[in-house]
Amino acid sequence: MAEWEIKKTLGQCCGTGRDLAIDEEYFAALVETDQGLQRQDFCTEYWEDHKPQVYCFWKTRIPSPERKKQIFIDNQMLLAFFDRLAAESDPEKIQFRFVLMLILMRKKCLKYESSRIEDGREIWTVRVSGQDRKEEAENPHLTEEQVEQLSAQMSQILQSDLE
């Protein structure tokens, strides 16, 4: 399994090269490249003028060094990322989506309903809490080590602005 290495913000707009100021709002995005998903940050002006092609994004701020760290991504953003990965067939993205599903189940955003075997694959069905919809995800039968690696990568993606 290849590792995704999502870097922390460099504090610079990828589009203009301009340094982002402390407390400035900007868009952090995951962009699909030949090397896999990579993080790129865009200042608001560049984002609005050029609408860059991205896989997933979130709006955040350059943190003040004195400010206490806090989780900046909410459950709806995690669920949107989970939904976005639904159509993917790449094994690494299937693995990533499965771990994200487990996290969402732990946060009670998804509730396990059932599983079935289909074409030799185990498919889990989960219900989205507070909504009348179900989602399915393939269980890639990850080892504990793979789950830990993916969880660490996910933590790096979701909290990289905070360190």
Provide the descriptors you would attach to this structure in a database record.
single chain, 163 residues, alpha+beta, 3-stranded antiparallel sheet, 4 helices, 28% strand, elongated
Report on the architecture of this protein.
- The chain has helices spanning 44-50, 75-84, 91-106, 144-159; strands spanning 25-33, 36-43, 56-61, 110-118, 121-128, 134-139.
- It is an alpha+beta fold and 163 residues long.
- The chain has two domains: 1-68, no CATH class; 75-160, no CATH class.
- α2 (75-84) runs antiparallel to α3 (91-106) and α3 packs across α4.
Secondary structure topology:
Layout: E1 25-33, E2 36-43, H1 44-50, E3 56-61, H2 75-84, H3 91-106, E4 110-118, E5 121-128, E6 134-139, H4 144-159
Antiparallel strand pairs: 1-2, 1-3, 4-5, 5-6
Helix pairs in contact: 2-3, 3-4
Kindly summarize this structure in a few lines.
This protein has 163 residues and is an alpha+beta fold. It has helices at 44-50, 75-84, 91-106, 144-159, and strands spanning 25-33, 36-43, 56-61, 110-118, 121-128, 134-139. 30% of the residues lie in helices and 28% in strands.
Domain count: the total is 2
C-alpha-based Rg, rounded: 17 Å
> Structural class of the secondary structure composition?
alpha+beta
Shape: elongated
Structure annotation, total helices: 4
The spatial strand order of the largest sheet comes to: 2-1-3
Please report the total strand number as a whole number: 6
Order of helices and strands: EEHEHHEEEH
Mean pLDDT: 83
Beta-strand proportion: 25-35%
Task: Give the helix level as a range of percent.
Answer: 25-40%
Distance between the termini: 26 Å
Biggest pleated-sheet summary:
3 strands, antiparallel
Note poorly predicted spans.
none
